[in-house]
Amino acid sequence: MGYLLNPGAGLHLAQLSHSAKIAKAPSDISQTILNFFPANIFDALAKGNVIQVIIFAILFGIVLNQANRHGAFNSILTGVQQVNQLTVKLVMLVMKAAPLGIAALMAWVTATSGLKIILPLLKFLMAFGLGSLVFLMGLFAFISWYAKVPLRGLIKGFTRIILIAFTTTSSAIALPVELDDAQARLGVSQSISQLVLPLGMALNSNGLAMYLALACFTLTQLYGMSLTLLALVKIVVLAVIACLGTVVVPGGGLVALTIVVPTLGLPTESIAILAGIDWFSGMFRTVLNVVGDTTTAIAIAADENELNRAVYVQEHPATKES
């Protein structure tokens, strides 16, 4: 969709171009893969090489999990958990002050670039909306075939979930509705839904991954930069990895952007350009996230013979009152 609509084309933010320099992509795929892994984790931390830090964190977590089967490394695990809790509190503290900074940066961008900045933002939302629609159509068609359920009944069963996700922009708020409708309207057993949906809320972020990739594509266009195929692959991979465990509240996309954008050589203030429409893009992100979680639960329930297909041909029960 980014290539089709070119949301960032036609406007060059020359006033920031001196601080924006795209990271040079390696010439072959093998070197790209090798660059994902740090030779020295402290060097990666000092240089802000986020993708290497994330890869190290994943590998370190796997090793710690394997080594701590008998509780020999509980102190290290506790320390990591405490650092994580403090980091989340720090992020939430910064997010409370973020609206002031975003307003100041947006005022500066609008003053220097004029109202012309509005058009790329509208095109960005259009590209994201169309991309979300294509993704949902493909996902529903695949799950209908995979789980052997009627497509019409599948889409009808998702109506309330999509409505709640679209209006609240929060996967956490939509979770109770997901749990209820997954069982009552989509036929997923309670044991499957209660395991898959909370786990998916933290780990499965289809919408955020799409948003990050399209946002990076748009920002590089706004700064007059060109991306090679390998650079695009790196952006997509980093976008997927950055979504693991991302904050599941409104505004979490901005946190993920601060991880991905600096790796492109773009200034962090460029995030403010998309921050002004974060609420609207959050609508699409949340829908894709929760639908991805619920369709995963349907697929697993079908594999485990715990899917009640009769609900797809019956009238759905009225919404339960609190």
Automatic annotation (TrEMBL):
<dbReference type="InterPro" id="IPR036458">
    <property type="entry name" value="Na:dicarbo_symporter_sf"/>
</dbReference>
<dbReference type="GO" id="GO:0005886">
    <property type="term" value="C:plasma membrane"/>
</dbReference>
<keyword id="KW-0813">Transport</keyword>
<keyword id="KW-1133">Transmembrane helix</keyword>
<keyword id="KW-0812">Transmembrane</keyword>
<feature type="transmembrane region" description="Helical">
    <location>
        <begin position="158"/>
        <end position="175"/>
    </location>
</feature>
<feature type="transmembrane region" description="Helical">
    <location>
        <begin position="121"/>
        <end position="146"/>
    </location>
</feature>
<feature type="transmembrane region" description="Helical">
    <location>
        <begin position="44"/>
        <end position="65"/>
    </location>
</feature>
<dbReference type="InterPro" id="IPR001991">
    <property type="entry name" value="Na-dicarboxylate_symporter"/>
</dbReference>
<keyword id="KW-0472">Membrane</keyword>
<keyword id="KW-1003">Cell membrane</keyword>
<dbReference type="Pfam" id="PF00375">
    <property type="entry name" value="SDF"/>
</dbReference>
<dbReference type="GO" id="GO:0006835">
    <property type="term" value="P:dicarboxylic acid transport"/>
</dbReference>
<protein>
    <submittedName>
        <fullName>Sodium dicarboxylate symporter</fullName>
    </submittedName>
</protein>
<feature type="transmembrane region" description="Helical">
    <location>
        <begin position="229"/>
        <end position="249"/>
    </location>
</feature>
<dbReference type="GO" id="GO:0015293">
    <property type="term" value="F:symporter activity"/>
</dbReference>
<feature type="transmembrane region" description="Helical">
    <location>
        <begin position="255"/>
        <end position="277"/>
    </location>
</feature>
<feature type="transmembrane region" description="Helical">
    <location>
        <begin position="195"/>
        <end position="217"/>
    </location>
</feature>
<feature type="transmembrane region" description="Helical">
    <location>
        <begin position="86"/>
        <end position="109"/>
    </location>
</feature>
